[in-house]
Amino acid sequence: MEEALRFAVLGPVRAWRGSEEIDLGSPQQRTVLAVLLLAEGSPAPRSTLIEALWGTDGEPASALGIMRTYVHHLRRALDPGGAAATSVIRSVGDGYQLQVPPDATDLGVFRDLLTRADRTRHAGDARSAAKYLREALGLWRGPALADIRGDYAQDRRHRLGELRLSAQTFRLTVDIDLGAHGDVAAELAELAAQHPLDERFRELSMLALYRSGRQAAALETYQATRALLAEELGVDPGQALQTLYRRILHADPELLLPRTLGEAEAPAGPGAPARPQPVPAQLPANLTAFVGREAELADAAGLPVDSTVVVSAIAGMAGVGKTTFAVHWARQLADRYPDGQLYLNLRGFDPNGTPMPTEHALRFFLESLGADPHGLPHDIDTLTSRYRTLLSGRRVLVLLDNARSAAQVRPLLPGAPGCLVIVTSRSRLSGLVAVDGAVPLHLDVLSPPEARALLARRLGDRRVAAEPEAVEEIIARCARLPLALAVIAARAAIRPSFPLAAIADELRCDSRGLDAFQDGDDAADVRAVFSWSYRALPPEAGRLLRLLALHPGPDISLPAAAGLAGLPAARTRQLLLHLTEAHLLNELGPGRYAFHDLVRAYASELAETEDPPQEVRAARNRMFDHYLHTAYDACALASPGRPLISLPPPAEGVSVEDLHDDPVQAKAWFATELTVLLAVTEEAARHRHDAHTWQLAWSMANYLHGRGLWREEEIVHRSAMEAARRSDDPVAEAYAHRGLSTAMTGLGQLDEALAHAEHAIALFNEFSDEAVRAEGYRRLDETAERSGDLATSLGAACEALALLREATVRDGGKRPRVAMASALNAVGWELSQLDRHEEALVHCREALALCEELEDHVNAAHTWDSIAYAHHRLGRHDEAIVEYCNAIALDRAHGSPPWYAVGTLERLGDVYVSVGDPDSARTVWTEALSTMETLGHPGAEKITTKLRQLTAP
User: Fold this and answer.
1) Is residue 588 classed as helix, strand or coil in its secondary structure?
2) Band of the pLDDT at 520, cuts 50, 70, 90?
3) Residue ranges of the alpha helices (H) in 687-769?
4) Which helix (H) or strand (E) holds 439?
5) Which of 112, 702, 859, 935 is the most exposed place for a label (fewest CB within 10 A)?
6) How far is residue 539's CA from residue 536's CA, in Å, rounded to a whole number?
7) Which of 834, 753, 735, 747 is nearest to 794 (CA)?
8) Quick one: pLDDT at residue 209?
9) Distance (Å, rounded) from C-alpha 82 to C-alpha 417?
């Protein structure tokens, strides 16, 4: 038996085969192995390996060849007798992947133990959680990557060290909960000494001391912490430490009780209703340097806990800190809403796009609350009803950021008491106040003392006190606008030797105003503020800032930003870091970035004035190429039977995301990027990138159809049709007709759907191959059947099958054979609709055999349904029941949209009635009706009638 490999990074980098340690060779080879291990099963790009070996600027000209030599030596060390093709280190795309299971590395085991600890603690088993945490921390043998040098290793060592500290904090918290406060006090004191500015250990130390009967020592710890933070950082302790101090000061008896899970997390007792999962926690991170707003927070504290509050700006001013205030307040209240906190940016005043449709917001919240995305209805009224039903009886905080109007917000309000809704907007949303009882809360610019406090919090009291006149001028030039002050403070903070007077001079000399956002005499001269930070950027970072303004989506991923800039991902990541450190860009989550809309407006101005038109067009082209080629790859993976269109290669410098040949990852990418893709398609149409427009619509079509997003499918294909006609491209027009036929069929507009299907067939027959022509006939088949024209439907299905038989002779690959299996089943189904059941079974059995050979579970489910229908009509009821159950099981096992199973459930109920089992019929029809009503399916009334007839005398 081959001995397993094991690896370690939580200390020196080491490897073993069985019990024998492997000689990993030179420090450089250990560095390569460390990068591969830290990728945790994902490919490590060559650029990352080169950066880890030589840094960002010092690699030799032959770096790639040298790095390949290190990989070769590592392969030989790990598998002396193996070949490169069978090595655990595989070449994958533009990099390498170490293919070992997670439990082969100490880091993988560490993460697994943390997950177990978290799960068992939430189940109420703190002792098991403590055991798992001790095992996890026992894996560490010193600092991570202890024998690896360089900036890359230092950065990863820091990140892993933070993970270790979080695990230590978790373990100490659990120990205190278990009553071991006396045992951990000394350990906490040591950790606090090692990490003097980490308030987590100070907080736990105070709690442990208090529970040990040492109230005075706990209070002394707070005072010492407060003095240290003031001296080192010029800040006060955080909110959590201040709250604990007040509770200890007043001898709060609840602090003597072990911490327990809240009601929302406690396991339900026998007979208790199960709480819906998951519990969303979507609030953005709190701003550590939040200052002031005491009066507004006091006003907010007095509001009802189940109200709607509109946080708006005086005179509609942008950058006044509405979102920062709302997030800070929401985080203060979060523990009062144990059923979750929802957050969404409604993009009401996004300079580069339209506000988020309320339907999209409802879908996002419903999915966040645990609803099946495939089972959501399509009209906004039904979506609103479903949303309010899920919120009924629950305590949820909803933060709606950057709303445009009361009409956009109103469907997102809960229908019953118990939830708090916070809305931010530049508008006062008076309609929401007048009609819906919302409470207005208006924010003005900061007061002069608050503005000084903001600068002092970020720059330190000493620096601010040393130049009072310069500080006052900076505050005046920024008009006390929090965003402008934050940008100036961010730049000044990373230049501690730069006099504040020089900053004031720069602002004075660059005073021109950002015209689009000026609001009277007191408006901030934000252009001057941004200009000062912009000019201090490295030229490449400044170029990236300008190009990011061309992106129409609410946020952008690292690969998309790299494609837009035409740069490698590693270099783009460094430039993005410059922008986030300068407070010109926000990192919303790992690898996703967004502008404040004022910064976007400023960057847009720069792009218009500083970048030549040909550079702007090239950047847009790269952006469209990134999304098109990634969407195309995702479509190819998620739709294995669809004939593919031909694309030209992406432009030079375009970064296409690696989906790892994984259909699940392809669908996940679509889900993450859907809002961006819709915006990018609209942008491509607006700038007359006609090929990108129709090809993006083609790439999204099957995903949109599978999600039931037929209105979005219609919109992108109408844009595709305009693009096709502008460019006089009949093939593009054919695909646009086909997409519109699909969308209109889903929307129930069957006459228009039939007309589009016929136009598509006419064009495909003139310009396309057999597989594509077959796709057109399949579209006509499905639409004609929905219209009740069974003869046309059968004729179209037979034509598609004949074309696909020709296509598989020419191309015996999987894709045309999957399409042929689907066509065989379609012919069988249409024959059964015409009572030609024996003929139908011949086609369906051929289809099923092909599905099983190809492991095509989706088409297999459809085929089992067709076979069951034929057997039911032939009186072979027992076989039909088994076959319908096969179809339902396959649909559910492989995540098919719920409407796939609805018809099967209805037909299964018909069989149960035929065999005299009304109870089983009632069960499956009730399930089908529930799904139909959720979807707004037109067949719901028919099922209701069947259920009523079951109880009729």
Assistant:
1) strand
2) very low
3) 690-706, 710-726, 730-746, 750-767
4) strand 439-443
5) 112
6) 9
7) 834
8) 83
9) 66
